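Quick question about two entries, pasted in order.
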Amino acid sequence: MSTQSEIRTIEVVPYNLNWVKKYLDEAEKVKKIMADELVKIHHIGSTAIPGISAKPVIDILVEVKNIRDVDNYNEEMKEIGYIPKGEYGIEGRKFFLKGEINRTHHVHVFEMGNSEIKRHLNFRDYMISHPEEAKSYSELKKELAIKFIHDIDGYCNGKDGFIKEIDKKAEEWAKTRL
């Protein structure tokens, strides 16, 4: 039987200016490890959207030349505290998490050209450029964190419809920026 301390708690907190520094610090470590494969590295997810509440977990997206070679970095990623999780439910991704219960970072690795890269970046950039929708997302996440405090699946499912709607808007919006 698990104890309370072993259960992951969903916590959404106000935006923290420190998140950018945490991203930059961790991105440097990941860049050193994956230097030979690295194309680009990005801060994604809610901690990359100024002013909105988020789970205090820094999401890092890494674009690489060849996704098949990423497993070669598993041991070095473990040395800096990451747990390699393979695709972890998304085909064509390599996923690493830092901290099982008290997570601090997620690293999502995709091969350059993967459509997930553009989707994540469009979402982030759209939300930054549309603060009212970002505020709505922030409010939704706070409500869901209360409702699903120990249920990450419920929390994620509760966001799913909103995210899909924003993904569509963000894709159209991105076309106008070319």
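Here is the second entry:
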Amino acid sequence: MRFSIQTASLRQLVLLSFFLALIPVAVLLWQSNKSLSGVSSYAISSAEHAVSSVRQSESMQSLVIDIERAVRQYVVVRTEALQRVALSHIDNQLNLLAQVCISLPQLTLCAEQQAALQALRQRFSEPVIETPELLLQQIRTQQQQITQQIWDLLEQQLQNQQQQVASTQQQLAWQTFGLVLLTLLLVLWASNRITAPVQKLDRMIRAIAQPKHQFPDEKLRGPRELTELGEQLRWLSSRLQQLEALRLILLRHASHELKTPLSSIREGCALLSEQLVGPLTPQQQEVVTLLNGSADRLSVLTEQLLDYNRLLQQAQPEWSQQIPQQLMQECFSDHALSLQQRQQQVKLDCQLNSLYTDATLFRRILDNLINNAQAYGAEGSPVWVKLYRQDDAVLLEVANNGTPIPMSLREKLFEPFQRGTTPRFDSVQGSGLGLSIVADCARLLGGHADIVDVVYADVCIRVRLPLLGEKLV
């Protein structure tokens, strides 16, 4: 049975779960119908018995009156007709009394009433009869007591019936609770048979999405469709690992291999520019200038590729306490020449004295944002850099004046090798990796990067980083 459930399709498992959940419901309906039928039959029988007992009680009460009337008339007139009438009433009373005593064995005055009626019947065989006042009074009193006992017994039966109904209701309530609990357990079992493989698939997908993912070795068990999907994900993971390894190898080798000939090209261009190997004509000088520009551009692209490759290989940040003012000043010093060429001045607003972060990742974020602001900012316009705390986060903002970025392109610019439509104002053509590196570094630090609107600049890139406990002052 276990093998068949594990290899069943998703539709078969859902249908099986549905029928299993219906079993307790069907049992509950059958048990409820059975209990209600029993209560209904008992109520009808009790009602019929009560009506019959009440009718017999009323008939016996009337017969007692008829017996007393017939006896008194017979004592006065003494005819055979009146004697037969009186004896007939007495016999009818004895028969009714016998029926009532059989149907209600709890009555305690049956024997006394029968003895009194028999004694009264024997009086008619005597030659001279007088009115038996004491005997008639006894029969009348006993009949009243019997009637009262009948009503008491009927009331007791009604209470018993109410108790039985309450007991049946309580039994049904416990059965309902038990069967509902069983249904819930069956539903949970069935849902677990479906959700457990789905959760494993989710873990597999998340593992694939990690930079250095460790795909689960455990084989997926569950419905046939999900098992097949798990095997496809396993194949996809293996394929992605191969492609990732090939990409990293290609990126690393290509970047390093480019640096050696690039250094030779730049050195040769420098020798030609300085005319150490001989004078150059104006046309030759123009060609050397173009070569110098292309070599510089290729150098920047190579450094960006190496930086992106190092970022991909870093799985966890190396946390330490840093002084943000010092990190920023070092970054500004590295970019001082390019900022000075475009007459751009950095306006720093650092409201934090200490920052708990990864210095390398934070510096990469700042380097790429300053380079982006310098390249796309308006000439002679300042570059605003702000670092401050907001609620439970640390915000880093780098803003500049220039062409605003449309809303439709803001998220896309954080993807690798994606460039905007705004041209750069420097001599280097971008590779589309700068903002991607910013986003990846922010993600490794537990934050994210966005392009936001501010009132003091045309373009502002904000990096939100988490506040790590009390480690930030």
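Reply: Confidence is low (pLDDT under 50) at residues 1-6, 469-473. Residues 133-209 form the longest helix (77 residues). Hope that helps.
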